TrEMBL record:
Subunit composition and interactions: Component of the RZZ complex.
Subcellular location: Chromosome, Centromere, Kinetochore
InterPro entries: Zwilch
Record-stated family: Belongs to the ZWILCH family.
Protein name, UniProt field: Protein zwilch
Described purpose of this protein according to its UniProt entry: Essential component of the mitotic checkpoint, which prevents cells from prematurely exiting mitosis. Required for the assembly of the dynein-dynactin and MAD1-MAD2 complexes onto kinetochores. Its function related to the spindle assembly machinery is proposed to depend on its association in the mitotic RZZ complex.
Length: 709
C-alpha cells in the first residue's frame, strides 16, 4: 500500500495524505467506515491548541472560583480552541475542522496519479482515495474519489446542489434523472430512503475524560429510519426504525451515578487488595490510594460530618427502624419511572440498613486511609453500646455481623479495632464486601422493573443460564405459571453463598432470646460480673475474605450499568413507559451481558466513558417523533441486478443528502456561495424549513485488459 502512495507523497509533500477510517462527511454518502486514503490540505492558520496548554493553570483557577462547571467547562475550552464541538448538533466531527480543501485542478492531478498506481492492483488490494475539494470552483465540487483497480475504472464526485424546502424535492424527478443518465427504465432502479431524527443531546467524540464527564450534554439519542417508498415524508407506520444512542458513563449530571459511584469505588478498592496480596500491604500508600475518582467540577463532601450525622440519626431510633417491605426505599409499588427510582436513591439511598448507609459514605472517601479511619471511628462508637444499628435480616456480610456483635457489647471489641487498624487489607475487604452485596441488590431491584428478576439474579452467578435468551427464560416462567399469578423467588439458591441476597421478605433485626441487651451488659460490666474474654463467643470476623469472585462480579456490574444508563436516557428522551422499555431492556442485556459483550472491566468504562448502541425499535414507541422534520434525509438510487446489461453497461449509484446543517466542516463550507452566515439564515425562510442538498455520483466501468483479434 505504501508503494502505491509513494508517487503522491513525493509529488505533493505539502498535502496530508493518510490512511484512515472514513470521516463523517464521507460516511454519510457511502454508509461505510472502511479504510480509505484521505487527502486534504493543512489548515493554513494553525489552531490555538498550544494556547490551551499555556492557560491550563489560569483555567483551573477560574474553575475553582466559579464552582461546578457543568455547563461552563467545554465553553471555556472553546475560547482557546474553535475546533471543539459546540452545544449545537452538527454533522462533522471536531477533528475534521482541521481538514482544508484543495483546488479542483490539483485534485484531478492527484486522482490521476493515484489512478495510475491502481491500474495494476487487484480489486481486493485497492484502497479508495478521497480528496477534499474546494467548492468555490465550477460545479461546486466537495469531494472527488478514485477507486479503480486492474479490472475497473471507478470514480465519484460529491457536489453542492443548493438548498430547498422538503416539499419542493420530488423523488420521482430524481429517479427519472438517474434513469436518463443510465439510459434505463425507471422500473430498473432500486430506491432506498433513510433519515435521522435528533431527539436529544450531541456527540462529543474524542474529548478527554474530564471534559466528557463535565460536558453540557449527557449523551445523544437519535432515531434512524429507512423505507423503500418514493417519498421523503417518513411513513411512520411502515418504516424501519433504529434507536441510536450514546451515553457518558459517570457524567456528573446522570442520576445513575447513585449506583455508579459504588461500582467505581469497588473497582479501586479491589485493585488495592490485589496489589496488597501480590506485594504486601506496606507497598500501597494508603494516603495516596484513590477510592473516589476526583472529577473537576464534582461536589466535594465532608464525609466525617456525614458519618457523625449517620451515628446521631441511628442513636435517635436505637432499637426501632422504619423500613418498607423488602427493605428497599427506592423501588416501591408506586415506582413508575426509572427517573423516580434513581431520584429517590440519590436523595434517600436504597435501604435503612446501617452498613449500607455506611457504605454510601465510605465510597465517597478520596483515599483508602480516609475509608479505614472513618470505618474505625464508626465501629468504635458502636462498641460503646450507645446505639443499636438496624441491620437487614438478609444482610449476611461480615461487617453486618461485626456491627451487631459490637453494639451488644462484645468483649473483644478493643482487640478487633486494633487488628483492623493494623490490617488494611482486612478493613478494606470488609467494606468492599458490603459495597458489592449492596450494589448487586440495587441493580437487581432496579432492573427487575423492566426484566424478570429471575434473569437479573442469574447474572451475578456463574451458573446463570447464559445459553438461553431472555425470551426463552421468560417463556419458561410463563409456562411454569400457566399464565396465572406466581412469585418465583430467584434468590433461594443464593442463601448459602458469599454474596447472599434476598429481596422478597421483610427486613427485621433478629433478636437472640439468650443474648444480653446493651443495658444488661452495661449493668453486669459495672458490677464486675463480666469476664474480659468469653470463651463461648465466636470470632467476630473471618481471618480472610475471598476476593477472587469479585473480578467477574464487577465486570457484570459494569455491563448492567451501561444498560441502565441507556434505559434511563431512552425513558427520558423518548418519553417511554415501562411497557415500552421492556423490549429495549431485553436487547440491551443480550448485547452487553454476554460473552461477546464489548464491556470487559469497570476500568474500561472509567477510561472510555462513551458507550454507543444501535438497535431496532418498535415504531409505536416513537411515533410522535417521526412526525417531525428529520435532521437529514438520504436518497440512494442504484441499478437493479436485472439492469446490468441494459443502457450504459456499468455499475453506478447516485446519492442525495438533504441536511439542515452543513455536512462538511466550516473550512470547506465557507467557500460556498452564500457564505456560512448567509447559509444559516436561508435554512429557514419564514416558517418553511430549508435543507442543504448535496449529490454523490458513483460510476464504475469494466476495463478490457486484452483485445481479442
Amino acid at each position: 500500500m505504501d508503494n502505491l502512495l509513494q508517487p503522491v507523497l513525493q509529488s505533493y509533500p505539502n498535502y496530508n495524505v493518510k490512511k484512515c477510517e472514513c470521516p463523517s462527511y464521507i460516511e454519510i454518502y457511502t454508509k461505510s467506515k472502511k479504510e480509505i486514503v484521505l487527502v486534504y490540505d493543512n489548515l493554513k492558520n494553525k489552531p490555538l491548541t498550544n494556547t490551551i496548554n499555556k492557560t491550563d493553570n489560569k483555567v483551573t483557577e477560574e474553575l475553582e472560583l466559579t464552582g461546578s462547571p457543568l455547563k461552563l467547562d467545554l465553553s471555556l475550552h472553546t475560547v482557546f480552541d474553535d475546533t471543539l464541538v459546540s452545544d449545537e448538533p452538527q454533522l462533522w466531527n471536531k477533528e475534521e475542522a482541521l481538514h482544508q480543501p484543495i483546488g479542483v485542478e490539483k485534485v484531478r492531478e492527484i486522482a490521476n496519479l493515484y489512478g495510475q498506481s491502481l491500474a495494476s492492483v487487484s480489486e481486493e488490494d485497492a484502497v479508495p482515495m478521497w480528496i477534499l475539494t474546494n467548492p468555490s470552483d465550477d460545479g461546486k465540487p466537495l469531494l472527488l474519489t478514485v477507486q479503480s483497480d486492474s479490472h475497473h475504472f471507478t470514480r465519484g464526485i460529491v457536489s453542492y446542489q443548493g438548498s430547498a424546502a422538503l416539499d419542493d424535492v420530488d423523488v420521482v424527478n430524481l429517479i427519472e434523472e438517474y434513469a436518463e443518465q443510465e439510459k434505463i427504465n425507471t422500473e430498473m432502479i432500486n430506491v432506498l430512503i433513510d433519515c435521522k431524527f435528533l431527539i436529544s443531546g450531541i456527540s462529543y467524540g474524542c474529548h478527554s475524560t474530564d471534559e466528557l464527564l463535565n460536558a453540557p450534554q449527557t449523551g445523544l439519542t437519535e432515531l434512524h429510519c429507512e423505507w423503500p417508498e418514493k417519498r421523503l415524508q417518513t411513513p411512520f407506520i411502515s418504516c424501519k426504525v433504529h434507536l441510536e444512542q450514546e451515553v457518558i458513563v459517570g457524567h456528573l449530571m446522570s442520576p445513575c451515578n447513585a449506583i455508579w459511584k459504588s461500582v467505581s469505588a469497588l473497582h479501586n478498592i479491589n485493585q488495592m487488595l490485589v496489589d496488597m496480596t501480590a506485594a504486601g500491604y506496606s507497598t500501597v500508600e494508603l494516603d495516596r490510594a484513590i477510592v473516589r475518582n476526583i472529577i473537576p467540577g464534582a461536589k466535594r463532601v465532608n464525609n466525617s460530618k456525614r458519618l457523625n450525622n449517620l451515628l446521631n440519626e441511628t442513636e435517635t431510633y436505637a432499637y426501632t427502624s422504619e423500613f418498607p417491605a423488602g427493605g428497599c426505599l427506592c423501588v416501591t409499588e408506586d415506582t413508575t419511572t426509572l427517573k423516580q427510582c434513581m431520584g429517590t436513591m440519590n436523595s434517600n439511598g436504597s435501604s435503612n440498613d446501617f452498613t449500607y448507609k455506611l457504605w454510601d459514605i465510605l465510597r465517597d472517601c478520596e483515599t483508602a486511609e480516609e475509608v479505614i479511619t472513618l470505618l474505625l471511628q464508626a465501629l468504635k462508637f458502636i462498641s460503646s453500646g450507645k446505639i443499636r444499628p438496624f441491620i437487614d435480616a438478609n444482610n449476611k456480610t461480615y461487617l453486618s455481623k461485626l456491627v451487631l456483635k459490637l453494639s451488644r457489647g462484645h468483649s473483644q471489641a478493643t482487640k478487633v479495632l486494633k487488628n483492623l487498624k493494623t490490617s488494611p487489607p482486612q478493613a478494606l475487604s470488609l467494606v468492599a464486601q458490603v459495597g458489592a452485596e449492596k450494589t448487586m441488590w440495587e441493580y437487581t431491584k432496579i432492573m427487575s422493573l423492566l426484566e424478570h428478576s429471575y434473569y437479573i439474579a442469574g447474572i451475578w452467578t456463574a451458573e446463570s443460564r447464559s445459553h438461553e435468551s431472555i425470551e426463552q427464560i421468560n417463556q419458561t416462567i410463563q409456562d411454569m405459571t400457566m399464565g396465572g399469578d406466581f412469585t418465583l423467588n430467584p434468590f433461594d439458591t443464593f442463601n448459602g453463598g458469599e454474596h447472599s441476597i434476598r429481596l422478597d421478605c421483610e427486613s427485621f433485626c433478629a433478636e437472640d432470646a439468650n443474648e444480653l441487651t446493651v443495658d444488661d451488659f452495661a449493668s453486669l460490666k459495672k458490677h464486675g460480673l463480666v469476664d474480659k474474654k468469653d470463651v463461648n463467643e465466636v470470632p467476630l470476623i473471618a481471618d480472610e475474605i475471598d476476593i477472587s469472585p469479585w473480578k467477574n462480579l464487577f465486570m457484570k456490574f459494569a455491563q448492567v450499568h451501561v444498560c441502565l444508563e441507556h434505559l434511563y436516557r431512552a425513558e427520558t428522551c423518548l418519553r417511554a413507559d415501562f411497557a415500552s422499555l421492556k423490549p429495549i431492556a431485553s436487547r440491551l442485556l443480550e448485547h452487553y451481558v454476554s460473552e461477546k459483550s464489548p464491556i470487559r472491566t469497570v476500568g474500561q468504562l472509567m477510561c472510555d466513558p462513551i458507550q454507543k448502541i444501535s438497535m431496532p425499535i418498535a415504531n409505536n414507541i416513537v411515533q410522535d417523533h417521526l412526525k417531525k422534520p428529520a435532521f437529514w434525509y438520504r436518497v440512494e438510487l442504484i441499478r437493479k441486478e436485472a439492469a446490468k446489461d441494459m443502457g450504459i453497461k456499468r455499475d453506478s449509484k447516485m446519492v442525495y443528502v438533504l441536511s439542515q446543517q452543513p455536512v462538511f466542516p466550516p473550512s470547506v463550507w465557507q467557500n460556498l456561495e452564500p457564505s456560512v452566515e448567509d447559509a444559516a439564515e436561508i435554512t429557514t425562510m419564514g416558517e418553511e424549513l430549508k435543507y442543504h442538498i448535496t449529490k454523490y455520483t458513483y460510476l464504475s466501468n469494466e476495463v478490457v485488459s486484452e483485445i481479442t483479434l
